[in-house]
Design a protein that fits this description.
The protein contains 5 helices and 5 strands, in the order E-H-E-E-E-E-H-H-H-H. By secondary structure, it is an alpha+beta fold. It folds into 2 domains: 97 residues; 47 residues, no CATH class. The radius of gyration is 19 Å and the shape is globular.
């Protein structure tokens, strides 16, 4: 399958990941290739026992090998990417999928990063609108809190 650029391929795979129910991350990128993997890929680094843990929370990584490898196709001068082709696909996950729509919506790869939305929230913060009022207003704009594409904590962090 061929796409116009890496972003189009990412959007395609992101839509697939949303439907199936797993989080994504953009991974290694080289001159002629790009990896997009399940974000549960890898293994967390071991912690030293010298320092006490602040939170009792383990890593969500499961060494999942699912992902796609994209091959970038350049023009004749090797200066611009003219197309991106899926070179390798691994769809085998070693973890359960997320089935709840609300949980899928709040995965990092599915959150809204629209500049207009962020500027709107920033303007409300600058006007010293209380946090609970911002959350209520955004919930009202999206016809209920379950439809808001970001969490209350995300709004606080913007």
């Amino acid at each position: 399958m061929t796409f116009k650029d890496v972003d189009d391929a990412y959007k395609f795979y992101k839509r697939y990941a949303y439907e199936v129910g797993f989080p994504l991350k953009k991974y290694r990128e080289k001159t002629f290739s790009k990896w997009i993997n399940c974000s549960r890929e890898g293994k967390s680094a071991p912690k030293s026992n010298d320092t006490p843990r602040m939170r009792n929370r383990s890593s969500g990584r499961t060494q999942c090998k699912a992902g796609i490898k994209l091959k970038k196709i350049y023009d004749d001068e090797n200066k611009m990417v003219v197309a991106t082709k899926i070179e390798l696909v691994n769809l085998e996950h070693n973890h359960e999928f997320i089935t709840d729509e609300a949980e899928k919506q709040h995965l990092r790869c599915n959150k809204i990063r629209d500049a207009e939305f962020i500027n709107f929230v920033d303007a409300m913060h600058d006007s010293r609108v209380p946090q609970h009022c911002i959350v209520d207003f955004i919930s009202e704009m999206h016809d209920g809190p379950e439809n808001v594409p970001v969490t209350a904590q995300d709004l606080k962090n913007m």
